[in-house]
Design brief:
By secondary structure, the protein is α+β, with helices and mostly antiparallel strands. Helices cover 30% and strands 29% of the residues. Helix 2 packs across helix 10. The protein is flat. The two termini are 28 Å apart. The protein binds adenosine-5'-triphosphate.
């Protein structure tokens, strides 16, 4: 059984992975806080990305640009005029929706008649029926009945529901209450703030809605300082902010989130080949770090769906508990951004190609992933329930490189100071090499279950025999195989396995 979003949310709260933002004040919509375990997990996701995209390659440099950028950046990029979503309000329940997320359906008007329920039960008499005083517009008789009952505030009111002939039309209506939606309004999603002490127009800046522009404005700095020739890329991870109209589905869509983006600069004409290359490379990154292939797919954007700057775009989609949805977008942004920045800044961003002795503006392929969405996908994909000796075992089978805690050390007997001391000393030593925890607050079975639920690959138990044979029991998460390993070899035993996993 695949895990539901509610189950993941509950596991995340219970195990210190992710909490609602500002929870003690009933939360702030669209924000989440990563707890001690989640912080490690997300950092590991970003580290795995950085390692594969920067360290393991010789054609990508790293960058960490400021979140606040000159306001002209967002005029040049088109975000001030274009970065908006169509927004509709429900005239009845007042809820707000992204108009393009509401499904268009065939709706019909229904005449509603109601009656008082007879005292002894049964059907009301013919004479007791009267017009409810309001028609209902719905996509089926059943939906009309439900909406009418909700409007009357009576879940069991006797109702007669009749479609009115010739009223069928195709439109979008409120998904919550069936009410009429206002005409779509464009809504700019950038958060505005002010620099300097005076809140006046001239001081407006935006919190970046994507990390990409920080890369474009530093393209020439990086190229020159690192003596780069095309093709090469610049990678960056960091926070982005979007005033999403309907943040929802846990960390899938939030107002503050982290992106992992590469802008890969190449010679025009080679862009199609690099685009295909990056689509493959990014798809394979997810499977390398443990996502099952059957839960991933690629979706090509239709021409009319493409952003104004893009020549082509493919999404890597994941089969989330909410259905197939975008995990990452890989776009061919052509020379749009650098051309725009050259125009608006007045700086020369042309590239001199020594081979052909010509000057041109590089084309750009952009693989743009979300660190939070990836974290959610890794969590969902790793979750499994098993039955072991008639007991349910919940395991996060995370790739070792992503596992928040690498090793946990337990004393078999928490009341034996000689065992406790040995276990604590081992834990302190392991901590110098990888994130290790010490726990003696429950019986061994329960301690194992706790660590399984957060995906800890190795649990080490120090027992009475350890005092004489100088060995401890190391138990591996997935196979549950236990091995006696000498104390002095435990660090190497774990390190070898972690490194082997990282290099697969
Ligand atoms: P969507 O269509 O889901 O709004 P998008 O196409 O606008 O996403 P991009 O601008 O391509 O997204 O951003 C690249 C990546 O950043 C997305 O694939 C996603 O992983 C992440 N991302 C974008 N918006 C959000 C958000 N509001 N919350 C969490 N992650 C996000």
């Amino acid at each position: 059984m695949p895990i539901s979003m509610d189950e993941i949310v509950s596991l995340c709260k219970r195990r210190g992975i992710i909490f609602q933002g500002s929870e003690i004040y009933n939360g702030l919509a669209g924000t989440f806080d990563y707890g001690p375990i989640g912080t490690e997990l997300k950092q590991n996701v970003k580290r795995a990305w950085w390692r594969a995209m920067v360290y393991e390659r010789s054609d990508v440099e790293g960058l960490d640009a400021a979140i606040l950028m000159h306001p002209s950046v967002w005029i040049a990029s088109g975000h001030v005029s274009n970065f908006s979503d169509p927004l509709s309000d429900c005239k009845d329940c007042k809820k707000r929706f992204r108009s393009d997320h509401v499904e268009e359906k065939d709706y019909q008007t229904f005449k509603i008649q109601t009656a008082k329920s007879p005292a002894g039960g049964g059907q009301p008499a013919d004479a007791d029926w009267h017009d409810a005083g309001f028609p209902i517009v719905a996509d089926s008789k059943k939906a009309a009945k439900e909406l009418a009952r909700r409007k009357l505030g009576d879940e069991s009111a006797p109702l007669k529901v009749e479609p009115v002939e010739g009223t069928t039309r195709r439109e979008r209506r409120c998904p919550e209450c069936g009410g009429e939606l206002s005409a779509p309004r464009q809504f700019n999603m950038m958060f505005k703030t002010y620099v300097g002490p005076v809140e006046d127009q001239a001081e407006i800046v935006y919190l970046r809605p994507e990390t990409a522009q920080g890369i474009f404005v530093n393209y020439e700095n990086v190229r020159q300082s690192m003596r780069r020739k095309l093709p090469f890329g610049i990678a960056q991870t960091g926070k982005s902010f979007r005033n999403e109209i309907t943040p929802r589905n846990f960390i899938f869509r939030t107002r503050e989130f982290e992106q992992m983006e590469i802008e890969f600069f190449c010679k025009p004409g080679t862009d199609d080949t690099w685009f295909d290359y990056w689509v493959d490379a990014r798809f394979n990154w997810y499977t390398r770090f443990g996502i099952k292939k059957e839960n991933l797919r690629l979706r090509e954007h239709a021409k009319e769906e493409l952003a104004h700057y893009a020549k082509a775009c493919k999404d890597v989609e994941y089969n989330f508990p909410i259905g197939w949805s975008e995990l990452e977008g890989i776009a061919n942004r052509t020379d749009f951004d650098l051309t725009q920045h050259m125009k608006h800044s007045g700086k020369d961003l042309l590239y001199f190609d020594e081979e052909s002795k010509t000057k041109y503006i590089p084309y750009v392929i952009e693989p743009s992933a979300g660190a939070d969405r990836s974290t959610l996908a890794f969590l969902v994909d790793a979750y499994r329930e098993e039955t072991v000796q008639d007991r349910k075992r919940v395991v996060l089978g995370l790739h070792y490189s992503l596992a928040p805690v690498k090793a946990a050390v337990f004393p078999l007997l928490a009341n034996r100071s000689d065992i406790v001391e040995k276990a604590q000393a081992l834990s302190l030593d392991l901590k110098k090499s990888f994130y290790t925890v010490y726990d003696d607050t429950a019986a061994i079975g329960k301690l194992y279950r706790r660590q399984d639920e957060i995906g800890t690959p190795f649990c080490i138990t120090v027992d009475v025999d350890s005092l004489t044979d100088g060995k401890a029991t190391v138990r591996e998460r997935d196979s549950m195989k236990q091995e006696r390993v000498p104390f002095e070899g435990i660090k190497e035993y774990i390190r070898t396995r972690l490194v082997a996993a990282e290099n697969t």
